[in-house]
């Protein structure tokens, strides 16, 4: 139960220090704050799944799931995914140093041509990835080139980083180009690439679950206070039905993520791919639906930045397609199930 105790501690800390004014200021500021990143690193949150021999706590990767639920629930901005996951999986990364950025053309299948590509020839990288989270703030670029993970200094010759617009209030993006850049470390292995992508998918599903829960909590509070015709609107039958639907979707997503985390710890590569894709596919749709209903129950106020539900909705939409939306992942899930059946 240690992961739940840690999640409770994270919730307590964010409730005390990450209040509405601070949260909205950071969301308005574009999704990056060096002070917040340093604060969370000092608390040890980024070292949870890092092996002990590398200075971390050494907890299993599945323990990160409940933390990401809290990150979503509190709308925490910044490179939580990159800072928490990459040092746990890739050697040579310091969880207490500057954040790593994941340069991965595999964030989507459907829009692969728009995202770009990277190739490794000998020891030289070439290509461009059009959208990389927190690349301009990173101390190291973790580049996926085919079946090899490359660690690259952002200041190295042949590396170019250009800021691009972001529709995600919790994330800043950049375009990263390589023109004969030389990595300082190469880590070959399709296994590692698959694990990075699968765990990224699963942790994003957990964050989406937290977004749904946070939007639900704020909506329940709002309809219990907002009055019309002399009584709270939460007493009207139509509002009750919509809130009940929100609660059911949020609880279902939360339970699915918990079950997926339980299965993921000992899963083989193919099973981990299936588990993570299933969780992310459902999360992509369920979280957006909960946030849409939250907007509706807040009325016209729900579309303003004064109401947190608007931020939850924008964040859910942004994360929905990262490492696959429901449509893309359903094809992946179907192919995986058919392959598994043929191998039986």
Description:
This protein is an alpha+beta fold and 344 residues long. The chain has 3 domains: 2-97, Acyl-CoA dehydrogenase/oxidase, N-terminal domain (Butyryl-Coa Dehydrogenase, subunit A, domain 1); 101-188, Beta Barrel (Butyryl-CoA Dehydrogenase, subunit A, domain 2); 193-343, Up-down Bundle (Butyryl-CoA Dehydrogenase, subunit A, domain 3). Helices cover 53% and strands 16% of the residues. It has 11 helices and 10 strands. It has helices at residues 2-17, 20-28, 34-42, 64-73, 80-89, 112-115, 190-225, 237-264, 269-297, 308-320, 326-343, and strands spanning 100-103, 116-121, 124-133, 140-145, 148-152, 159-164, 173-181, 185-188, 227-228, 231-232. The chain has a 4-stranded mixed sheet with strand order 1-4-5-8, with helices on one face. A hairpin with a 2-residue loop joins strand 2 (116-121) and strand 3. Helix 4 (64-73) packs across helix 7 (190-225) and helix 7 (190-225) runs parallel beside helix 9 (269-297). The chain is globular. It starts with a helix and ends with a helix. The model has no long low-confidence stretch (mean pLDDT 91).
CATH topology of the largest domain: Butyryl-CoA Dehydrogenase, subunit A, domain 3
Q: Which residues sit in consecutive blocks of at least 5 with pLDDT less than 50?
A: none
State the assembly state of the protein chains. Answer: single chain
- Give the distance, in angstroms, between the N- and C-terminal Cα atoms: 35 Å
Count of discrete domains: 3
Helix content: 40-55%
Please count the beta strands (DSSP E, at least 2 residues each): 10
């Amino acid at each position: 139960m240690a992961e739940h105790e840690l999640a409770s501690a994270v919730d307590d800390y964010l409730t005390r220090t990450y209040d509405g004014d601070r949260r909205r200021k950071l969301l308005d500021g574009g999704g990056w704050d060096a002070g917040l990143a340093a604060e969370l690193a000092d608390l040890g949150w980024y070292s949870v799944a890092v092996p002990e021999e590398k200075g971390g706590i050494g907890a299993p990767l599945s323990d990160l799931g409940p933390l990401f639920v809290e990150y979503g629930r509190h709308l925490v901005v910044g490179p939580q995914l990159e800072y928490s996951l990459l040092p746990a999986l890739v050697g040579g990364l310091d969880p207490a140093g500057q954040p790593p950025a994941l340069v991965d053309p595999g964030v989507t299948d459907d829009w692969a041509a728009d995202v770009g590509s990277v190739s490794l020839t000998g020891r030289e990288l070439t290509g461009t990835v059009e959208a990389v989270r927190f690349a301009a703030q990173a101390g190291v670029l973790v580049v996926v080139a085919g079946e090899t993970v490359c660690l690259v200094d952002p200041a190295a010759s042949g590396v170019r980083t250009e800021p691009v617009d972001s529709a995600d209030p919790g994330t800043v993006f950049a375009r990263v180009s390589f023109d004969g850049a030389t990595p300082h470390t190469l880590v070959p292995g399709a296994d590692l690439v698959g694990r990075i992508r699968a765990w990224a998918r699963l942790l994003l599903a957990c964050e989406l679950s937290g977004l749904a829960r946070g939007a639900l909590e704020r909506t329940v509070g709002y309809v219990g206070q907002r009055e019309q015709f002399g009584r709270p609107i939460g007493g009207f039958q139509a509002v009750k039905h919509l809130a009940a639907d929100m609660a059911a979707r949020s609880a279902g997503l939360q339970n699915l993520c918990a079950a997926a985390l339980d299965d993921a710890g000992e899963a083989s590569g193919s099973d981990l791919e299936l588990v993570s894709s299933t969780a992310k596919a459902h999360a992509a749709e369920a979280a957006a639906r909960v946030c849409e209903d939250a907007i509706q129950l807040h009325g016209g106020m729900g579309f303003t930045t004064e109401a947190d539900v608007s931020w939850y909705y924008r964040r859910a939409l942004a994360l929905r397609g990262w490492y696959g939306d429901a449509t893309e992942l359903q094809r992946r899930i179907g192919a995986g199930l058919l392959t598994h059946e043929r191998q039986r």
